[in-house]
């Protein structure tokens, strides 16, 4: 990389490129000197690279803005071209709904205004455009309030610029900033306030979840901007290097930016209804998502030195780094620990990363990315960050009973993976008290599931060794045993053992699949019945494939037809899945993998998996184990992925068809032109070109036409597959929600007037549900001289969990109802009419309907 590129990229960093210089002014002068020397013969490259740096390292935008201001003093044409490029990119980002592009380019324009590059009136004009569009969108008569997420985004963009340019605006055009503040306040007074309870990290308790229950994100940002205004627009976290060059920059020419226009939003539904409005509102929320849902893990004292606006700016810095370095974990960690601020921010950094990891309905990037970043940050700041992460884990563990089920699952997966990178070291003795809690207590289940996941990532003895300091926690480890092969066991049917031996010999002898099927049809099935046949086939073949994942996949690929022959319909597939679960009852991971692979090979259907998950044996585990939920998540996810993949393939084929049609049209035109030419043959005029070329053109035209026909056939076939997949998806969600509704109707406490999960959680302990071995709450409290009202989440050093087993079962199941509804909302909304008619009826349990509506972010009053 050339020196000017290095200097641009590393400006503001402590790197060899800048020697011992640490002052921003020195960096800018050094970089400007290198750019000025290269500007005449590398203008295009510098323009592109400079803009790319500003867009992808937005925490350095004040430095790049000042640099552009210095360039403007010597080469106005270059800066004019740069602004034209920014204008094009900005309008394109607006039109395409690129929220990050719009937000970052607005920050860059604000800084360019501070550096006297951009006319102040141009920036104010963009603010006015956004304000006008936002006000129109939420207007009941002129706009479409369903698209309020778009309007909120415009207002957020305006407010987010003020930490970078508010001081200059107040100094130069105080009347404009006053008008702006009044306009924003007017907008906030007419917008609808959405509580978004379906996206809360914790089940809303007393409405006092810090930052989320009191105000939404736009209101919160507005409050911070008001505090900034009262504080004289001073922001510690935003460097202002242009002030060091103010005497020079004031001599530069400020350029106009040109007008921009906000894209039109869709019209309201022609026939307004709760369903049609809900669909369009969901579409708007997908296109203009809220960037962060703030997760407050630590007490305010850990970040109380920060001004409210500094917290917002730091979150912006951290989220930008996570966004632009999502493929480079080490660079990401390096930039995160070297942000240009004069204070420490480890606690805020941890809260921001965890807020992204646990964000609902889904994190911006795959959870593994955040896992790797946290690992690298622990290594980069070994004296500070590991302790902060440990504190976050402890704080979340204390509130685990109230944590959303999807967040809880992600936390388990992250924590187990994190520990596997640090020799599984954790002070488990702190949590040894969970053994005194009922088996359904969320803290106990959390520890149990973390240990189970650790065993997957290592081996049983290693994990057992890691919990040696916590006496008794070994009890929560998964069983050590392997396959549960009952054929040939003591007291087992000798006939089954003999049949298994025959099948084993056939497999070892590499008998063809059709021979094995014939043997089953002629010898096994007629004489022993389906149940014995199924047990022999499943246990024998799975036992052959039990050595490793590869062995299992090989068995399923080679002998899938045998399973398909024995279990051709849904009822028999349920029996097949049950037999698989029994064989791998001591290994949750292998159970999930085997069933998932069977679904992949279409040996079992997703409906059969749902029926098995909601069998009595699995229902009893809903609140004490992740085993049935993992299988269900895999089935729903695989169904969704099939549809998603088909849509991508159809989109690609559509482009290919258009390209092929264009090529065929061109080939036909060339052939027609050649055939229309007059040529001389033996002195006589003949219609047509040289016969050899003509034949070649005819062949090319025919091939091009065949290519179009072939692609169109593939396109139609994929569309047919998509229609079938969507029908399967509809059937899946109908069965899933019917199953949820039925089991909840049976098990919700009779006579309970609970309307929310918190009310249900507060229900008195069902004495009959408590294990006889467990002491009662009152006895434990009296023994330890504690008041009867112990913490409901099994607080530290408490031996009580004040929620009965039935109530906990309902709370867990309703939590998963909400989680599935939220995660697959985009696939559920197209089928909502049928769900409303067949499942979400007046007869359905109110708590069940509330959970579905909350997950879909549908007004609860419709439930």
UniProtKB/TrEMBL annotation:
<dbReference type="Pfam" id="PF09090">
    <property type="entry name" value="MIF4G_like_2"/>
</dbReference>
<dbReference type="InterPro" id="IPR015174">
    <property type="entry name" value="MIF4G-like_typ-2"/>
</dbReference>
<feature type="region of interest" description="Disordered">
    <location>
        <begin position="775"/>
        <end position="800"/>
    </location>
</feature>
<feature type="compositionally biased region" description="Polar residues">
    <location>
        <begin position="785"/>
        <end position="800"/>
    </location>
</feature>
<keyword id="KW-0507">mRNA processing</keyword>
<keyword id="KW-0539">Nucleus</keyword>
<dbReference type="InterPro" id="IPR003890">
    <property type="entry name" value="MIF4G-like_typ-3"/>
</dbReference>
<dbReference type="InterPro" id="IPR016024">
    <property type="entry name" value="ARM-type_fold"/>
</dbReference>
<keyword id="KW-0508">mRNA splicing</keyword>
<dbReference type="Pfam" id="PF09088">
    <property type="entry name" value="MIF4G_like"/>
</dbReference>
<keyword id="KW-0560">Oxidoreductase</keyword>
<dbReference type="Pfam" id="PF02854">
    <property type="entry name" value="MIF4G"/>
</dbReference>
<feature type="coiled-coil region">
    <location>
        <begin position="636"/>
        <end position="721"/>
    </location>
</feature>
<keyword id="KW-0175">Coiled coil</keyword>
<keyword id="KW-0223">Dioxygenase</keyword>
<dbReference type="InterPro" id="IPR027159">
    <property type="entry name" value="CBP80"/>
</dbReference>
<feature type="domain" description="MIF4G">
    <location>
        <begin position="8"/>
        <end position="229"/>
    </location>
</feature>
<dbReference type="InterPro" id="IPR015172">
    <property type="entry name" value="MIF4G-like_typ-1"/>
</dbReference>
<dbReference type="GO" id="GO:0051213">
    <property type="term" value="F:dioxygenase activity"/>
</dbReference>
<protein>
    <submittedName>
        <fullName>Nucleic acid dioxygenase ALKBH1</fullName>
    </submittedName>
</protein>
<comment type="similarity">
    <text>Belongs to the NCBP1 family.</text>
</comment>
